[in-house]
Specification:
Shape: globular
Order of helices and strands: HHHHHEHHEEHH
Distance between the termini: 49 Å
Oligomer: single chain
Strand content: under 5%
Number of helices: 9
Radius of gyration: 20 Å
Structural class: mainly alpha
Number of domains: 2
Amino acid sequence: MALDTNQTNPGYLCGRLLAALEALEAATLPEKQRTVFYQLLPKLATSPGVAITAIATHSPNLLNKLANRDPAAAELHKNRIGDILSRITTPNIPVDLETRSWAALGYHHQEHADVAAGLRPDQDHPITTDEVADMLGYQGDSATKTAATWLARHGIKPIGRQPGRYGLNTYSYAEVLAAKQSAPGRGARTDLAAKAASEQSD
């Protein structure tokens, strides 16, 4: 499912808003760890409205810094954030499960759209074990555990951990993607391919 710019669900818009703030931070402070990801994204899962206060707190300083280096980019990010904010009609964002689910969708849809548009200069970003499971197509109750096994088998080590007692390990998206692209598909008989190659060289 792609980004829906016409979706007016407040949870979806809050998710988009936080992703837009993360993209702004990446464009402004590419050499630093993403504080939005580690500090604010976990809060989105329980209180989607955090995105609104986060914009007010973080975006002015980030936009000013970016404008000093790249005024056009700053204007682009400012307009994107303004467009999303203009669609939110109430500051009282529900915290029910459905709204929180919409917020997660909005965040990931906007994030993927930004990567595709080249709006994230540091396209390598942390992803959790759960997100690795989604990336690999694992489903069910054991999906996260299976993903952790896959990561270990490919020698991919955590680069961080989400805050909180139940925080998940985070991994380099670029490293996971490279391993996924180089790995054979499910059910591929690499042993037969190696055998065929050996026979051809004889």
